[in-house]
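Homework help board

Subject: predicted structure for assignment chain

Our instructor gave us this sequence and asked us to write out the predicted structure in token form, then describe one feature. I got the tokens but I'm not sure how to describe them. Can anyone check?
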Amino acid sequence: MELNGTTVVVTGSGGFLGRYVVQQIEGRGAKVIGVRRRDYDLLSRREIDRLLADTQPNALVHLAAVVGGIGANRAEPGRFFYENARMGIEIIDACHVSGVEKICIAGTVCAYPKYTPVPFREDDLWVGYPEETNAPYGLAKKMLLVQAQAYREQYGTNAIYLLPVNLYGPHDNFDLDSGHVIPAMIRKFVDARDAGRPHVELWGDGSPTREFLYVRDAAEAFCLALERYDGPDPVNVGSGREISIHELASIIGRATGYTGEVVWDTTKPNGQPRRQLETSRARQAFQFDAFTPFDQGIDETVSWFENEGRALF
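My token output:
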């Protein structure tokens, strides 16, 4: 798809990834219509139909989701399943009915089974059940892959499905209850540094590993996929670097200038033991490679939080 001159709807445009995807698509000459919950209720089919009638897009990027960390997923598993599944199911069907040329759907690394061989390959998505603390969210998003493939087979719908790893960067959610690991950790370290507290308490034992992708890199991947990929298979989008939570704490401690002790609360869950994606399909399918060094991305995220983000959280 040539984006220049097209109209592209982006759901979740006010979200963390959404703001960057909007910028990248606009930079390619497209007219972008960002959708937030206050504009259209994406849990209502009538509202989704109204959105598509009002905007008549050539393509739609579905990023809107109910998201959060381990605590939020444990507190509201029903909501995380229902709202994510319903939004996606209705959006995909409405795009099919109204004749939208292309749909790009954001999946989640949480869709992978708990004990997936590392690095995670797209063909391993169905080898087991996801990690229990975020399984409802992960399965809801995985059902959108099933729908996209089924609609492609029956109706010829051009729906593609990307599986981004944990994202981080400026404008992330630094709320301690609903934020993911990097922003929550940054906030805890900065607050402890400024208050002179002798230690920071973190969940688990620090042994799990994760892969993180800078949010601007992820936005570039979504644009490249819109332009260059039309296949039925899911595609991992990541950096290819695996890091333990213990090492992450050390990096963030250095970046924030916190010199106190880290105390690990082993009564709290670790989450999935390991996460790292095999990313060769993205490279082959639409020539994406992550380009922001991890330490640089962390420094930029810390700087944004200290200069702008603290007033928001």
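Reply (TA_rk): Your tokens look well-formed. For the description, you could write something like this. The chain has a mean pLDDT of 95. That's the kind of observation they're looking for.
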